Amino acid sequence: MTTVSFATLDGATSGTASVPTGSSSSPDGALRTHLQSSFGWKVDDIVLDMYAPGQYVILFDTVSMRFIRDTCSVAEATTEADKKMVQTELHEYIIRNHIQELDLNDIYSHYNISTISEHAFHNCESLTTVAIPGSVTEISRGAFYSCESLTTVVISDSVTAIGYSAFQFCDSLTTIAIPDSVTAICAYAFTGCKSLTTVVIPDNVTAIGGNAFAGCTSLTAVAIPDSVTAIGTNAFAFCRSLTTVAIPDSVTAIGYSAFRECTSLTTIAIPDSVAAIGGNAFQFCDSLTTIAIPDSVTAIGTYAFTGCKSLTTVVIPDNVTAIGDNAFAGCTSLTAVAIPDSVTAIGTNAFYDCRSLTTVAIPDSVTAIGDYAFAFCSSLTTVVIPDGVTAIGGGAFYNCASLVGNGKC
User: In CATH terms, is domain 2-61 a member of 3.10.20?
Assistant: First the structure.
């Protein structure tokens, strides 16, 4: 063994190390291994220059440097077309060389790139880690689409928008820190990121795009800030590990299928600011036991709570005028429902197969009961139909076997 000294070119890091000697040993290789274990530097990036016996200066030859020097055909990116060409060639370089870790700082700085272009790194299946530089302001459509091995992404504070499908189907992505600079999370941004467990949405985001987190099946918690006014269509659909969601007072609309098939969701607090619950919004939320619908809600969409088989009670607020088709169909544990005087129509299949429902008081305001509205409510014993009802749909009380005086209606 012999002791060698080393120092980086700028003198910021220096030291000594014991390395083997002899024809069968490689002191350079041993020193690289020492530097990797001591400082976390990648062995392939380390270049050693022995300027005197046992004395080394450390240089670096990173993936970024090799791409700029040996691969990229663009010498200077003076146009947007040049910058797009750089990213196209970088995409090919990553796939060809099975690059796993990528720090974009040197490349983007060298070519003055501020936007990660559309599909820039799509299907780069070897990529595990990406560092996005501070010069980047936008991550464009499909930028990291289907980067299946990507586990870590560091997004800089300069980014303001995460584009459509930017990280869609990044199956291995476990965490994502979205910086406060981001104001828009576009549709499908993180769809199908099935290893993602937690998400904190920053305070400047005003809308969560359609399907933004749909199919994130490992997502257990999400923090929605007060800045958000709308939760888009399918935004959290099929997030089957999500147990609770706090919707802030700023939200006015819950989109179509927003929480559809969130099968672990047990509680949800809907604020007074919400005026409409979209169709299929909580469909097949199997574990949802209670739901407090605020007085601000005027419309409960079709299929809004269909198949919420653990839901036991529902109080419909006074401003609702219509209960949508299939709104509570298949809520097999529902024992009681309070329908207010504001409701004028009960939709088709509205309470279909609510087999635990024992009694329903239909208010005087109702004029129409839709087809199969209470069909297969097998525990229903009493229904009071007011004088104002002018239309009772076909099979409205079909197979209500316990309904006194009716048998199978």
Answer: yes
